[in-house]
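A reminder from the course coordinator: this example appears on the midterm review sheet, so study it carefully.

Given structure:
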């Protein structure tokens, strides 16, 4: 397994290099940062020259990309965030990634637990009222846009529930809070908003997988041998149903980081989302590339973990 993981990690290096060039080229094609200064009546020539020197705008894209990649590879320098007062990109991205992880990880765990539970419950009670109810709620979660759900939860908790019950509302400003309890309360609404659509989609996927497995011959054989239904479902059926789930979870965690752009903006959470929007609108090339690089590495890393977990849940898979 270790040899397989090492080979996969080595194979990701060319992939990251190619992806970084394509993204760097795309970002530069979107617009030239000098255009804003050229249209600014109060900006002097020194500001223009400073921008050209910072991003090496007087050089071809390939040269600029090679310089940026070399600084990261040999010096760990991601460049300068012009939109953040010319602060280094690396500490900004690290801090913002930690803040995004504070809602992405709880959201991911919520998705895993609820999606599996709803899948099993819905499958073993096929065509029951509970099954129809879960199906309706799942499609509602899939269809409801994130920004609509986030705003609705803010109104629901901040105005209606607070007025009815007279209790303290959740902290949704994203500011650093004084206690762990305040921190937990501040992430509840973003986690619900971020995980709703994934729970709906995965519960539908898991229900189909469970229905296919519980109608398989070996499940009927296990029941015929007199095994308890709980053992048949959770030891034999669920373990096999989790195998396709692993791929979905790996992809969904990367999607969680991307989907947090809208959620974090709604709740003013100081993660990667708001600063990524700021970098795009400000054409801050180094900051955009730093954020994309971190997210890409996480996506590749979780896909590698998913491949390794296949061997844990399926004994037939060997990494020799």
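Designed residues:
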């Amino acid at each position: 397994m270790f040899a397989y993981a090492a080979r996969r990690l080595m194979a990701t290096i060319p992939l990251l290099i190619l992806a970084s060039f394509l993204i760097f080229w795309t970002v530069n094609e979107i617009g030239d940062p000098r255009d804003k200064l050229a249209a600014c009546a109060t900006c002097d020539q020194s500001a223009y020259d400073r921008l050209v020197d910072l991003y090496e705008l007087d050089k071809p894209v390939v040269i600029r990309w090679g310089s940026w990649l070399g600084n990261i590879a040999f010096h760990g320098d991601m460049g300068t965030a012009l939109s953040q007062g010319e602060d280094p990109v690396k500490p900004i991205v690290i801090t913002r990634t930690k803040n995004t992880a504070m809602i992405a990880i709880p959201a991911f765990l919520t998705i895993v637990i609820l999606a599996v539970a709803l899948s099993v419950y819905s499958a073993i009670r096929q065509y029951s009222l509970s099954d129809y109810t879960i199906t309706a709620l799942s499609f509602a979660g899939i269809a409801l846009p994130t920004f609509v759900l986030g705003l609705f939860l803010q109104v629901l908790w901040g105005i209606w529930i607070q007025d009815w019950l007279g209790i303290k509302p959740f902290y949704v400003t994203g500011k650093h809070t004084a206690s762990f309890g305040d921190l937990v309360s501040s992430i509840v609404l973003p986690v619900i908003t971020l995980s709703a659509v994934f729970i709906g989609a995965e519960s539908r996927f898991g229900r189909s997988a469970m229905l296919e497995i519980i109608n398989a011959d070996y499940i009927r054989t296990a029941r015929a041998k007199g095994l308890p239904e709980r053992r048949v479902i959770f030891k034999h059926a669920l373990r096999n149903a989790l195998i396709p789930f692993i791929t979905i979870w790996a992809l969904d965690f990367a999607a969680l980081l991307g989907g947090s752009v809208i959620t974090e903006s709604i709740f003013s959470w100081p993660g990667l989302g708001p600063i990524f929007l700021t970098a795009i609108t400000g054409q801050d090339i180094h900051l955009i590339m730093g954020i994309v690089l971190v997210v890409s590495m996480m996506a590749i890393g979780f896909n590698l973990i998913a491949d390794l977990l296949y061997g844990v849940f399926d004994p037939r898979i060997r990494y020799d």
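DSSP finds twelve helices and two strands in the chain. The mean pLDDT is 81.
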